[in-house]
Design a protein that fits this description.
Length: 171
Amino acid sequence: VNANSHVDPFSWSICNHWTKVSELILGKETKDEMRFMASLVLNNMDVKTCRSIDRGGNSRIYMIEKKDDLKIALKRYPFYDYEDQGRLEREFTSFSFLHQNGIDLVPIPVIRNDQLNVGTFEWIEGEKIEKPNEDDLQQALHLTRALYELRNTSEASGLPIATDACLSGSS
C-alpha cells in the first residue's frame, strides 16, 4: 500500500469455501508447508522437493520427490464445508476400483489423509493435451469402453457417484 492509496478497514471479501477463508487470513501455503504436509501424509518419508503443478480444476496438485528420487502426485482438495469431503474419497475409491480391474489409464492411488483432505497418487509423466490427436482419442475411447463394460459389476454398484456427476442430458 502506498501513501496515496486508501485501505478500507471495513471492506468485505466473499469466500465460497474454507480454503479461500484460510488463504485470505493466512495466505497461500508455501512449498515448505506443503513439503511438511506431504511428509505427514506419506508417514514421515523423506521428502526432497515439492513443486506446484498448475493443472488442478477442483484441487491443487503438487509433484513430490522423495529422497530416493521416487515422484508422487499430491492432491489437496478444498474444504467446501466440513461435511463434504467426498471428492477425495470418490477419486481414491474409483481409481482403486479401476486398477483392481486392470485399467491402468489413471494413476494408482497411494495414501490418503481424510483429515487433511489430501490424496497421493502415482506420478505420471506427461504434458497437458492442448490439441488432442488420434491416439488421445483412442485412449479416451478405450477408457470409455472399459468403464461401460464394468458398469454392471457388483463392485461398481458400490462405488460412490462423482461429486459433479452429470447423469442425464438435462443435467
